[in-house]
Amino acid sequence: MRELNSPTRRQFLRNSVVMAAGAATVPLVGGCGEQQSITRTTCRTTSGGGKRPAWPIACRDAHLREIGQPDFWTAMTAIGADRVEVLVKLDLSCEYLMDGEAKYSLADANSIRTLGQRFKNANKRIVAFCLSNDFDNRPDEEVACTVKVAEAAAELGVPAVRLDFVPRQLRDSEDEFLKLSVTLARRIIEQTKGSNICFGVENHGGTTNKIEFLRKFFAEVGSDRFGLTMDTGNFYWFGYPLSQLYDIYAEFAPVTFHTHCKSIAYPETEREKRRQTGWEYGKYCSPVYEGDIDFARVTSLLRRAGYRGSLCIENESLGRVDAAERAGILAREVQHLRAAAAETA
Q1: Using 50, 70 and 90 to split pLDDT, how confident is the model at 331?
Q2: Helix or strand or coil: residue 254?
Q3: Contact present, 30 and 4 (Cβ < 8 Å)
Q4: Which domains does the chain have, with CATH numbers?
């Protein structure tokens, strides 16, 4: 299994530029993998003999608040999740972590140690910190927050930080937003120089779901620590036909550092159409085991690209069912993803 940083920087930039120009799929760099240390993290994959390790299955923290358990760690155990993605606000609070009266934050060294110790005591781990950035409204604040979160991630052994590049002020100027995004991403990479933390931009909304935008973005940033949080459902939500999704997953798998695994169950007559963005999403979004996306195929593509991170559940259909049903749905999703990953082990 090749390592993340095995291509030279020159090779990385050359291949990225080729892809941004719209050429055929060319591998860029390897995927971001977890490691076992609580004090250090890396985006390298490792090679070696023997059976490949099972991929951890993770869940977004917001879902774990919805299943009637007394605390966050009991909720993870209840659905069988190995890892969790933790949302971090601009003030560095982790407001979705549910643990009685306790509050958690990354705001200072003592808070970071407290959070790490609580996870260690519970024998649970964080797969990624999730930021809901607003880069074109408050660029300096968001860069500063991202850098602080990356520093905390390195301290806690969290391998990736999910970023959100969604235009708000610049929604009508994609070229200007791309220029701003590249500038800010380079600042983040420069200010975390020497770190092994990987940054995964989620394909989210009307801009970063465009594969042409992603190609240009990653090519111009030109860092082997800057890539994708692959949201499997969002590319489908954007309107790409089902059969085209797997080519997209394959193209971006080599720069995938984190995942959001979700699906949509469209009527058969709609699956291969180039649909309007967001078409009937609230009606047809679904658990991964009911949707159209073949996760055994997805995990196979990720594995071949060297990805060793978690498969992280994001289920935006939970609001359609009673609270009492949600734990069972999430538990079944965990089992579905574990089985899909096992098929490609």
Answers
A1: very high
A2: helix
A3: yes
A4: 52-343 (3.20.20.150)
